Amino acid sequence: MRSVLLYVLPWDFSPTVLLTCLVSAVVYARGLRAFHASGRQTGFWRPLSFFLGLALDYGVLQTYYDYLAQHMFWIHRLQHLVLHHVAALLLVLASPGHVMKAGVPAAWRERARGLLGEGRPLAGLLRCARWLFHCVQNPIVAPLLFVGLIFFWLTPSVHFGAMLDVDRYRAMNWGMAVDGILFWWLMLAPRSDQGSAAIGYPLRILVVCLVALPQIFLGAYIALHGTTLFDVYAICGRAWAISPLTDQQVGGLLTWIPAAMMSGIAMLVILRRLLSEEAGPASRRAPAPSRLTPQAANRGL
Amino acid sequence: MAHSRRGVLGLLGLCLGLAGCGSAGPPFALQNVTGLLPSLEFQLTNQDNRAVTAADYRGKVVMLYFGYTHCPDACPTTLATLAAAIRGLGPQAAEIRVLFVTVDPKRDTAAVLRSYVGFFGPQFVGLRGDGDELTALSKRYRVAFHLEPPDRNGEYAVDHSSAIFVFDGTGRARLLGSESDGAAKIAQDLRRLAAT
Known about the structure:
The structure holds two protein chains of two kinds. Chain A is mostly helical. Chain A has helices spanning 2-8, 15-37, 45-61, 64-70, 73-93, 97-103, 106-116, 123-136, 141-153, 156-164, 166-188, 191-194, 201-224, 232-236, 244-285, 289-300. The interface between A and B is medium-sized, with 19 and 21 residues.
């Protein structure tokens, strides 16, 4: 029992992560219920994508996995692949905005309006947040930030400090999770959801291709480097016995290949949005004849 | 021309002054971790079976190292390097303590620890703790250790960190080194920390 708990319970408990995940999950679940009650559709895949993304984020941050990530370079790289790419992408693909809005309790909404509404005490804070959001969410700053964060935390001296100091370590992981959501939202969310931040689909395709290049370069540099770049793992001890260079090579490959593949996946999603928007909403609703024909034929037999 | 040169010199003086405020003296030979790691704190039992805490070592420059007495290579070499560094300090050696925390408390009883650390010198202290105390300390300093599967005779190796954490007299974490830094460099930094 004790050993099972060791793997499931947080290695370094963070109330902020627990609260953020819990509140998001509850608000989303309430939203789903409200949608179903009013007969609106949410489909099967979107809620799955949302909960999977949330569970992945929580899992890599608040279980024994976090211990392994602190003591093995390649597991740390996998943790960032989840936070910055996979989970963030899943959360964005779920487009949870509308559902979550419907799930916010009326009392909270009232209170938020009281605090953040025009002329209210915290209205300045909201304006500040909006301004910051607009500064970050544009086709030049967002990709620079996305790639820049990866390079910054993988600078050997910075990496050394982040793996020793608890506060820096937390800031690093939070930064990765939040920046991942911001970047993929800007790249993948339907234009209708983005308001004034929206950028065209062809430009998005260009940006996701461009961010892949420095990641490939950095991953290859780490994977093919002949000596160890990050000595903190040798000093503090690895989670299990593995050659330092193997650890580094696998970590480099994870930074290189799956990270770049995410750009490929993102490109497919953007293309799909581009095509479906060009085709227009009317043609999407029309039943595809090719799908119905074999069924009809079967029934006939 | 002379005017601008004086201005440049003034600026240079200001920069040097500011730099002097930021860090006292030249950099340490070992990795400076001041502000990165928490100060020394633990509850363990020493080689005489007495309960000790970090407060017992205030006023001394403390080197903290995780290892185990059955260790075939890393631990004896590291402790021998530290002993050599301490020998090089002369009378300042009395200001140093090496806390050797065993990651194998099952085999490293108080008696085993006593004879082991006694071999390296009077500054060496052997410490052991139950599972939770040891986990708390290793978590605090972000070190990992793990028991290898035992062989036919029940003997097993333990993978562990190579870190030597150095704390000043107030218990603040200051430096991080390893055996590969060598006795001379370690002694040089210890001398500076013991003098302040």
